[in-house]
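Margin note: ligand = pyridoxal-5'-phosphate.
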Amino acid sequence: MDLSKKTKDLAARDKKYLWHPFTQMQDWVKDDILIIESGSGCYLQDTDGKRYLDGVSSLWCNVHGHRVRAIEQAIQKQLRKIAHSTFLGLSNIPAIQLAERLVKIAPKGLARVFYSDSGSEAVEIALKMAFQYWQNRGEKKRRKFIRLTNAYHGDTIGSVSVGGIDLFHQIYQPLLFNTVPVQAPYRYRDSFLGTESGYLDHCTKKLEKVLRKHAKETVALVMEPLMQGAAGMINQPKGYISRARALTRKYNTFLIFDEVATGFGRTGKWFASDHEKVSPDILCVAKGITGGYLALAATLTTEEIYEAFLGSYQELKAFFHGHTYTANPLACRAALANLDLFRKEKVLERLQFKIKRFSEWLKELWSLKHVGDIRQVGFMVGIELVRNPLTKEPYDLKEQVGVRVIKQARKKGVILRPLGNVIVLMPPLAMRLSELKFLVNVVRESIREVTEG
Ligand SMILES: *Cc1c(COP(=O)(O)O)cnc(C)c1O
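Resulting structure:
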């Protein structure tokens, strides 16, 4: 493809000055790179005017598409008031309004909102909050966190400590604090044979064993509910989050849900917790909160946890955490406009039918020779590619099958991102049926061409 002079020039400067996240820059500088200049609806447009369907919601955060007038107007209106003022010692209007709205839609019992700027920070805050709760209450021995294997909670040192993706984070091992792992459900790669409810019991037993042994020194169990995203879209058996709730109650420790990926309609309900009417003690949200417009995150918790931080000034029980841009008014305005749109456009109601059609179309992919597993929860999908579906033998990572599939899809006008050998689909909730169908078709053809071609 012939690139314009403008694109070539920008690409050269990118390669000269930038360092991209999760990227082997040695490969980056050799390849043609895509530079996005604009977007509209579920499409992105590059510097040569070529359009691409955004199949991963600009990394799992876009909700209503790009160039959404209502969100843009809300941000512009706020800009004419003030862009930012600190939240340390001062308050602001959008942050107050948004907190009230978040508490209204959040699972029951979550009554307090602590803002930050990214999912990693929302998790970091949850960890510190839960830890300090026990310290403030005089339970000084509680220092451990229980986590699931294959978990992803962000890239800061604290959130990596409770994460479990060795591929990314192995190198940082010496810097991390100790945590207690529980084997996460992963039906496709588990040797367990039996029914879904049998598998639920099997996974619950593993969780209970660890909780029973460590509960007294444990601060909290941290997990992504319903589906572990970055691990490769690995879903949990029905009932697992309810069991996690019952067991953390039984053994008297906290339950932290990281809904950074699953929140704001992604699974078909406001929160993944809602599928089983579970209320965690702490809930972390980010990605979809502003509809994909600005950086904002929040950690919600109960009045009980909040109250353990109350005391006279010199007791030093306050929560000593905060960032420069905490509760940024522009971001909070975008979030309010995002929530308004959910109601006005009946996003969740309309999503149900789209999820059904999406599943039907995805079923067609089972006929491909190298599709081992297809996992879907709402608008979160993982397609696991394997060398041999009978033995489930994986592709060697060196073969970069996932990367090759997304390169093929890009030629056909779709932007995706793989997680190893898993092809991830995370379309904006606003994606139209015709676009969704196109997305699935392109994925099917791209997988076929790379694995069967
Ligand atoms: C993306 C993600 C994070 C990290 O969020 P950032 O905003 O990228 O820091 C944490 N937890 C889960 C489940 C995520 O998907």
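The chain has two domains: 34-64+346-451, 72-344.
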